[in-house]
Write a structure and sequence with these properties.
The chain contains 7 helices and no strands. By secondary structure, it is an all-alpha fold. It has a single domain, classed as Fumarate Reductase Iron-sulfur Protein, Chain B, domain 2 (Orthogonal Bundle), CATH 1.10.1060. The radius of gyration is 14 Å and the shape is globular. The mean pLDDT is about 90.
């Protein structure tokens, strides 16, 4: 089940989250997300596998603002990383190399490849 996989990979207890929304309020990337961080947690708790198709884990900046703001010390950045890892373990590539714009700075491409392909 999704919940067990995420908890095993991230080492986080998702049941500690009581949906206060502080993670979402402090996240600088919510404008690009299709599901807010607290909605991701709720979907995982419901074992909703469709969360693996969400854009949110891939646009997470890993800034740890969510974890700092969480009153229960749930490290949502680790949970986002776990979701990406589960998706990659299923051999699903998020980046199509042929569609990368050649004008992007090389360091940005390398950073993206490390983040999105493991």
């Amino acid at each position: 089940m999704l919940l067990e996989k995420v908890e095993e990979i991230s080492g986080e207890n998702l049941y500690a989250c009581y949906q206060c929304g502080r993670c979402t309020a402090g996240c600088p990337m919510t404008g690009e997300m299709d599901l807010m961080p607290n909605q991701i947690i709720l979907a995982i708790l419901r074992n909703d596998e469709s969360v693996l198709d969400a854009k949110t884990p891939w646009v997470c900046a890993q800034c740890y603002q969510c974890g700092v703001r969480c009153p229960k010390n749930v490290d949502i950045a680790k949970i986002m990383e776990a979701l990406r890892e589960i998706k990659l373990r299923n051999n699903v590539n998020y980046i199509d190399l042929k569609k990368i714009n050649k004008s992007y700075p090389q360091i940005a491409i390398v950073a993206a490849m490390r983040k999105f392909t493991g």
